[in-house]
Amino acid sequence: MFLSIDTAVIIEKLALIAVVVVASLVIAMYATFAERKVAAILQDRVGPNRAGPFGILQPLADGLKLFFKEEIIPNFSNKFLFILGPSLAMLTAMMTGAVVPWGDKIHILGRDFSLQIADINIGILYVFGVVSLGVYGIMIGSWASNNKFSLMGGLRAASQIISYELALGIALIALLMVTGTMSLKTMVVQQQAHWYSWNIVKQPLGFLIFLICAFAECNRTPFDLAEAESELIGGYHTEYSSMKLGFYLFAEYINMFISSTIMICLYFGGYGIPFFEHTVAAHCGTNWLAFWHILTLLFKVACFLFFFMWVRWTIPRFRYDQLMNLGWKILIPLSLFNMLVTGAVILFHQYGWHF
Amino acid sequence: MGITQILFWFLSLLAVGSAAMVVVSKNPVHSILFLIVTFFAISGHYILLNAQFIAIVNIIVYAGAIMVLFLFVVMLMNLNAESEPQKNRLMLFIGTIAGASLMLVLVAALKQSDTTTHLIQMGGGNVGLIEQLGKALFTDYVFPFEISSVLFLSAMIGAVVISKKED
Predict the structure, then answer these.
(1) For A297-309, what is the mean pLDDT?
(2) Of A121, A129, A182, the CB nearest to B64
(3) Which top CATH class is B3-128?
């Protein structure tokens, strides 16, 4: 029968889902800590150093503080939607991890255990679909607050995300033309062949567009107009307090983590170890290879997360009209150009001058 | 009953129920949210038919783009049951008749159609997978496909041109 999966597969997938969810939560927690440390270093300060050695317990303290804060639901808000908003933001942030290949496979109890939750043949489209749903958390929350400033912040965030999704999609089309597959796993395997087979070599402009759009999709500086406190009090989460506010802030960090992983899978060889892939593969067993793969992926993710933070504390925020101009008048024509050039090069590669 | 059938009935109930709620609910924002649930249920049906590409495109285009625009407009208009003008009896009467006749036409059309030979195989076929779909689109249907993509491209460029004219 079509859906008769055996129990072992269900158990191993559930275990993998639990591990991925917990790991992305922990990484997002420590991303908040890293953000404060990076900001401190860039501004010549010390940063949080009270809780635990070097302040490494700071995220726990922050979480506890958020949990113990008074939970306020405004009287004139729509209670169900008010709670649904941050939950949706968190849900959509966590869902993307399902198609990311975290490693090749491990071998336990005589079974091969794929380190990817679902290798569907529309992998990257699934990511795109979940990202496009991310708007709802912000929009529903901002509307349910029944506050003009929240609504303005939510509308800003939503229009920004919709505008940048277009350029993101077209940049992806060019990449799909090069790779000829939509499965993230296949893309990663393709990029393992040589050191120069990373897709960033073939699609530098596409990567640049994708990177800018990823910043905008995560609502990160310089695109964080949704929470421009000098204009909009706190943005879409003005009315939120306690852990519901925490969910919104946390979802941003999970989004950062997941979008870094996606960018690495698409353009930077995924879990592939640069230069030493074949050497390591020849000398290690399956499990050790998977260990090094995961470590490599996490290292690349750490580099990207640092880049996100570096940009945040270096570049000032755009004005709203500048943001829309960049999205519609520069990025979309640029990504169309990138797509045309990619198509022409692929055709030339296949047929030479005779097409 | 196998898992497929349970899922089918669950998704069907969800789709029909939330579609009914779209019409019934008083708050237009709630209507839109129920419509999104309906789209998700329909996407679930596509997945049951092993048409993953259509399922995800349905979510991206309808739930991810069009419904966001709906939500945008409704949120900005801030419609309320109190401020809504009262509809008169005649309008209600005409609306009921129009809806009922549409229902009659649909039921009649369904009754005429041949349901036994054209039943789609649940989960069996791979027609909906992206490779098959791509081959069909770029060989048998290449002309309509290209025409419609040119239409979309010109719409997108048109949006950029309109926004450039303003300044």
Answers:
(1) 90
(2) A129
(3) mainly alpha
